[in-house]
From TrEMBL:
High-level lineage: Eukaryota, Metazoa, Spiralia, Lophotrochozoa, Mollusca
Gene3D superfamilies tied to this protein: P-loop containing nucleotide triphosphate hydrolases
GO molecular function annotations of the record: ATP binding; ATP hydrolysis activity; ATPase-coupled transmembrane transporter activity
Domain of life: Eukaryota
Protein name stated in the entry: ABC transporter domain-containing protein
Homology family: Belongs to the ABC transporter superfamily. ABCG family. Eye pigment precursor importer (TC 3.A.1.204) subfamily.
Principal subcellular localization: membrane
The species this protein was found in: Pinctada imbricata
Record's keyword annotation contains Transmembrane: yes
Length: 270
C-alpha cells in the first residue's frame, strides 16, 4: 500500500508483534528471545551499542533475515504471509521509497546534521500518527531530542533486551536498580553509556544487572499486556529445512521465563 492512503482507511488495529525472536548467524547467537510490539501511529526506536543486534532485528522484522525462531506477526498474520505489507530501508539507501503499511528504517538520521535528523524524525512521527503507519527505526548514539520522538524504545545489549518501554520511564528504571542518571545526562543517553562496553572498564557487571532486571520484569503480568504476548496464538516459526535450532540452556528449550544468567560475547547455538 502506498503512503497516500486516505485517513479513513487507516489500519489502527494492525500492529507488528514479535515474540521470543532468536537468530543465529555463523554459529553466533545474535538475538536472544527479543520481544516487543510496534503499534500503528507510533514509532518504535531500537537502540544499543554496536553489534547489539539492531540491524539483525530490523531485517528479521522485515522478512529479510532467515532463519529465525519465534513469532513475527503483522496484525495477527505470520510475517511470511504478509511480507508485501512490510518494507525495509537499509542504511545504505539514500532515498526513501513509497512507504507501505509498515516500515523498518535502519539509522535514518546517520550522515545528517542535527536539524536534518530532527526534521526527518518529526516528519516520520507525524506521518505515522496521521496515516496509522507502524514505523520501527534503529538509532545510533543520537541527541536526546531524537529519543523523545520515539513512542517506545527497545534497547539491546549483545542480543538481549536491556530495556523496553517509554523513553520517559527510563529514569525510573535506572533508579530502581540504583543507577540513577548523572545530572546533565538524558536518561536514554546514560543508559546507552552504561551499555557501551568500550566506555566503562567495569561495565560488564552493570550491563548484566540491567539485562537481568529486564528479564525479571518480563515475568510480571504487565509485561505480557504491554507486549501483547497473549493476544495472538503462538506460531513459533522456524524453517526446518535449515540447520538452526532454538537456543537452549541445560538441554531445555528456551522461553520468555527461562533466560541465561550470564552474558557472554559469543553465545553459540546449541
Amino acid at each position: 500500500m502506498s503512503g497516500n492512503r486516505k485517513e479513513e482507511n487507516r489500519d489502527d488495529d494492525i500492529e507488528i508483534v514479535f515474540r521470543n525472536i532468536n537468530v543465529s548467524i555463523e554459529g553466533k547467537h545474535i538475538l536472544k528471545n527479543v520481544t516487543g510490539v510496534a503499534r500503528p501511529g507510533e514509532v518504535l526506536g531500537v537502540l544499543g551499542p554496536s553489534d547489539s543486534g539492531k540491524s539483525v532485528l530490523l531485517a528479521t522484522l522485515a522478512g529479510h533475515r532467515l532463519p529465525y525462531i519465534g513469532d513475527v506477526l503483522v496484525g495477527g498474520v505470520p510475517l511470511e504471509q504478509a511480507r508485501g505489507e512490510v518494507a525495509y530501508v537499509e542504511k545504505s539507501d539514500y532515498l526513501l521509497p513509497s512507504l507501505t503499511l509498515r516500515e523498518t528504517l535502519e539509522e535514518p538520521t546517520s550522515c545528517m546534521d542535527f536539524k536534518e535528523g530532527l526534521d526527518l524524525l518529526k516528519t516520520l512521527k507525524h506521518y505515522a500518527e496521521k496515516a496509522g503507519k507502524v514505523l520501527v527505526i534503529s538509532l545510533a548514539a543520537s541527541p536526546s531530542s531524537f529519543y523523545t520522538l520515539c513512542s517506545r524504545c527497545l534497547f539491546l545489549y549483545k542480543g538481549h533486551i536491556a530495556y523496553y518501554g517509554n523513553s520517559r520511564e527510563i529514569r525510573h528504571f535506572l533508579s530502581k536498580i540504583d543507577l540513577p542518571p548523572i545530572d546533565g545526562y538524558h536518561p536514554a543517553d546514560y543508559l546507552l553509556e552504561l551499555l557501551n562496553h568500550e566506555t566503562m572498564d567495569d561495565a560488564l557487571p552493570i550491563q548484566e544487572t540491567i539485562v537481568q532486571t529486564t528479564y525479571q520484569l518480563r515475568k510480571e503480568p504487565g509485561w505480557k499486556t504491554e507486549t501483547l504476548l497473549n493476544k495472538y496464538p503462538v506460531t513459533l516459526y522456524t524453517n526446518k529445512n535449515l540447520n538452526f535450532k532454538p537456543y537452549h540452556q541445560n538441554g531445555n528449550s528456551h522461553d520468555a521465563d527461562d533466560e541465561e544468567n550470564t552474558i557472554t560475547d559469543n553465545d553459540g547455538t546449541h
